[in-house]
């Protein structure tokens, strides 16, 4: 009997679930090192047919909304210096933006504590995908962002080898291929049911 799980928003390179004879990669996904990853910015769906679970990702209809103070956004880091990093916002909550909005994350808004000890180069790198909260605007057309909450920060980053880094602490991520550790302001990902219906470990 066929069935569907509730779709969830995912981003390119995001690990979705383990790959196996039962769990197979479908359209919009690819398999690597025993896991299934998303190729697209869109929604993941699990199709179940005769005990075979096929994971697919398809683009979702874009909606014209704008970031507002208090919103949680998904953003890509584009530039980092000693005082701040620049970002482009891709999603607000689960909604993919129809256009990108610029954001700036200042050193004092990276962490809730020990703000004077924050080093931007040890918190973010260009290309990182982060979760951040939108702060009230102080400049026209530029949104101020904050990661000063445990659940906010880097959620997806790649090593020089192009491999997705694995969080190992609040401040470090590690390349599973080379075992090289890199500093980041790591987001505490709240456990949720993954595409297979099991909590991520």
Can you lay out the helices and strands and say which pair or pack?
Blueprint: E1 3-4, E2 8-10, E3 15-18, E4 23-25, E5 29-32, E6 35-38, E7 42-49, E8 52-58, E9 72-80, E10 84-92, E11 95-106, E12 129-134, E13 143-146, E14 153-156, E15 166-167, E16 172-174, E17 181-183
Parallel strand pairs: 4-8, 11-13
Antiparallel strand pairs: 1-7, 2-7, 3-6, 5-6, 7-8, 9-10, 9-12, 10-11, 12-13, 12-14, 15-16, 16-17
In short:
The protein is an all-beta fold and 201 residues long. The chain is built from no helices and 17 strands. It is globular.
Overview of this structure, please?
This protein is mainly beta. It contains no helices and 17 strands. The strands form four sheets. Strands 1, 2, 4, 7 and 8 form a five-stranded mixed beta sheet that branches. A five-stranded mixed barrel has the order 9-10-11-13-12. Strands 3-6-5 form a three-stranded antiparallel beta sheet, with no helix packed on it. The chain is globular, with a radius of gyration of 18 Å.
């Amino acid at each position: 009997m066929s069935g569907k799980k509730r779709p969830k928003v995912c981003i390119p390179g995001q690990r979705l679930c383990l790959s196996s004879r039962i769990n197979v990669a479908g359209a919009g996904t690819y398999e690597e090192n025993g896991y299934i990853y998303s190729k697209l910015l869109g929604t993941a769906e699990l199709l179940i047919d005769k005990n075979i679970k096929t994971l697919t990702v398809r683009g979702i209809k874009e909606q014209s909304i704008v970031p507002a103070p208090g919103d949680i956004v998904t953003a890509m880091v584009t530039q980092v210096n000693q005082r701040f990093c620049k970002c482009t916002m891709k999603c607000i909550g689960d909604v993919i933006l129809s256009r990108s909005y610029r954001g700036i994350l200042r050193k004092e808004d990276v962490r809730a504590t020990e703000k004077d000890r924050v080093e931007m180069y040890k918190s973010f790198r260009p290309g990182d995908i982060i979760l951040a909260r939108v702060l009230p605007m102080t400049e026209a057309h530029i949104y101020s962002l904050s990661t000063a909450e445990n659940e906010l920060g880097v959620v997806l980053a790649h090593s020089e080898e192009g491999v997705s880094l694995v969080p190992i602490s609040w401040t470090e991520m590690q390349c599973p291929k080379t075992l090289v550790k890199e500093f980041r302001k790591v987001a505490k990902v709240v456990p949720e049911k993954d595409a297979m219906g099991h909590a991520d470990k």
